[in-house]
Amino acid sequence: QKEVEQDPGPLSVPEGAIVSLNCTYSNSAFQYFMWYRQYSRKGPELLMYTYSSGNKEDGRFTAQVDKSSKYISLFIRDSQPSDSATYLCAMSRRAGANSKLTFGKGITLSVRP
Amino acid sequence: KAGVTQTPRYLIKTRGQQVTLSCSPISGHRSVSWYQQTPGQGLQFLFEYFSETQRNKGNFPGRFSGRQFSNSRSEMNVSTLELGDSALYLCASSRGTSGASETQYFGPGTRLLVL
User: Half-sphere exposure (CA, 13 Å, Cβ side) for B59?
Assistant: First the structure.
């Protein structure tokens, strides 16, 4: 079993829809949880960073962590065509750069105008 | 400020050859991490360098190596290339502190094709 599993895609939604992206993990040592967005031919860019369980909101994006279920989610409200990209969850045992990021495989989202 | 730059952007090699990829981090960043991205395995951590020392390593064979220079620029080398080494190689830089909100900034990657 891989340490981090991410829902396979691709996912296609109409503009304005609420999108839910999910990852599960097996290693209870993970403490820091991230969501990255990767556009075609670009490197990943950090969207959300959360520590331990709870919710974090940033504009149209909400990250949710449930450590008891080893489950994290990213919600995108009022989705836009510009949100079309690959979304990757990532997690680490320690904070900061001195920590190895373990990624999910990513899911490709397409938002139809 | 300028972002992370990687050169070359695209590379074609044949099996058995070796390749060197370069990464210039954001100015002031002392940590550089390297990742391999493939459709089958996703993004996998290769290694991290900080102040010219490797301080973290993933589960890749010894054919994959790296180094960091005093100006924080980093190179990774893959020797005796195999078809399975075809991938997007990404580097990420950060300040290198252990702050809880430390962010890794990724470059655009080098796409390597091994024939």
Answer: 5
Distance CA B72, CA A68 (A): 40
In sequence order, the 6+-apart residues with CB closer than 8 A to the CB of A65 are A33, A50, A52, A53, A54, A55, A71, A72
- In angstroms, the separation between the Cα of residue B3 and the nearest Cα of chain A is 11
Nearest CA in chain A to B35: A101
**Would you call A17 an interface residue with chain B, using a CB distance cutoff of 8 Å?**
no
Considering only residues B104 and B84, tell me which one the structure prediction assigns the higher pLDDT.
Answer: B84
Task: Please check the confidence at residue B15 and state whether its pLDDT lies above 70.
Answer: yes
Q: Characterize the bridge pairing of strands B10-13 and B110-114.
A: parallel
User: Which amino acid is located at A88 in the chain?
Assistant: L
Distance, in angstroms, between A69 CA and closest chain B CA? 23
Dump pLDDT digits (tens) for A43-93. 999 999 888 788 999 999 999 999 999 999 999 999 999 999 999 999 988
